[in-house]
Amino acid sequence: MTSSGSKKVASAAIKMALTESREEEKDLKKVYQDQGIRTAAVDYGGEFLSSVSKVIERAVVAAKREGVIKDTHSDEGAVAGATHEALSQIMPKSIGLNIGGKIGIARQHDHVSVAVFFGIGMIHLDEVAVGLAHRAVSEGR
């Protein structure tokens, strides 16, 4: 795998997190599937601090459900760790506020990326933030 693999997978995760509808998500998933990239996306909303573990859990469950990762400790840990890292990147803007948006996950070969795209704030006074993280996992599929 060339060094561009991590960039390609990160781009796919970001684009999945940016989809605005289930239909768009499904269409993009098919495009990536044809390129050998497995993807998943899941919506989330809630108060940031109390939501961190729920967001991580949702990302892992979605990745397993969509076949992005295997049901193994190392694959689950890679997605959980990348999700936590992506959330930590938006934490300074999010503490004490509500978040709402989407988590995108992508994998090709040994590259896994998780992107979070959230509106942050109260009422209509939203900030927007993106967090992105990458992990390397064993291909053993």
Automatic annotation (TrEMBL):
Claim: Signal is one of the keywords in the record: no
Keyword annotations of the record: Activator, RNA-binding, Transcription, Transcription regulation
GO molecular function, one term: RNA binding
Record flagged with keyword Transmembrane: no
Subunit note: Homohexamer.
Function per UniProt: Antiterminator that binds to cis-acting regulatory sequences on the mRNA in the presence of histidine, thereby suppressing transcription termination and activating the hut operon for histidine utilization.
Similarity section: Belongs to the HutP family.
Protein name: Hut operon positive regulatory protein
Native source species: Formimonas warabiya
